[in-house]
Amino acid sequence: MNWIDKIYIISLDSHKRRRETLSMDLHSAGFDINKIEFINAVNGKDLDINQSVMDGIIDDKFLDPFGLLTKSIYGCALSHQLCYQSLLETDDDVKTALILEDDASITHTLLRMLLPNSIGGSRLKEDVDSIDWEVIVMGGQSKKMEFVSDDTDNLLKVMKRYPMQYAGHSYLINKSGAQTLLDTNKCIKYAADVNIHMSNVKLYCTPISYFVQKIGNFEKESVSNLMYTFEKVVTETQDGWKSEDVRSSTTHGDFEQGTQLFNQTCISKSLEIQSVDWESFVHNGDVVEGWTNIYLKL
Fold this sequence. Notes:
Low-confidence stretches: none
CATH architecture: Alpha-Beta Complex
Strand order of the largest sheet: 2-1-5-9-7-10-8
Distance between the termini: 47 Å
Structural class: alpha/beta
Number of helices: 9
Mean pLDDT: 88
Helix content: 25-40%
Order of helices and strands: EHEHEEHEEHHEEEHHEEEHHEEEEE
Radius of gyration: 20 Å
Largest sheet: 7 strands, mixed
Number of strands: 17
Strand content: 15-25%
């Protein structure tokens, strides 16, 4: 993929081993490592939230589909903005950039596409050249990406705006997309990955994840599947109970299969919160329901 003009790797300065591992993976896959620029990530732990709100860096309201908020999420969003700013400041001959978080890892699907005379590799390049795109998500939380079905032969697909899972560990971006993402979340109110979908960028994705995230030596999806599997095993071995018995217990109450049981929120104790609600809101003409609205206490 030598047609990519720039590769940004977001990484804390202390994550030297992660930097080396990802750089070696890219080099072995044939990427031009001379195009790599490490972006020293903003460490959320060091952020003064009150001061950041007063300075207009962080909004006093945070919106998230899963109600998840930590200081590191703010730091991650600010780190992605550093990539956008850097890309916008490059020369005119730099048009596209691949943005990676340092826990990203190349999949076998991408390695096959990078083989000489690969049909998939040539089709990807053709789509990149012919489609009017601004952001192309290259990897999700699972192997299969969530996209809008179409009847075209294009490899790139229009991505769903509100997917079941969000990911920002790997995506292609051009300068127009960088400016839009920067403007949409200039005063941080979304996580970096959520911001991609809340902006009005021309958003595409690959049908299969070309990059995945890793937790240590394991793929994040594999770890999540193991946790879910063993949770079911533990549940179903409790005196013959089954998962549906637990869900319909006196504590949990009855619920309709396939629906969300609880309003979700998971907020770090390092943040002071004024209030939380789940009021629907309108964004880009869409009514967004079920998201958590978190209001900071200043």
